[in-house]
Amino acid sequence: MAREEFPPVADSVGVARRWAVATLGLDGRAAEDVGILVSELVTNSVLHAGLVDDARIVVEVGRAARGGCRIVVCDDGGRFRLKSAAAARRQGGRGLKIVAALSTDWGVDHDGITRVWVTYDPPA
Question: Which PANTHER family does the UniProt entry name for this protein (predicted)?
Answer without folding.
Answer: ANTI-SIGMA-F FACTOR RSBW, ANTI-SIGMA-F FACTOR RSBW-RELATED
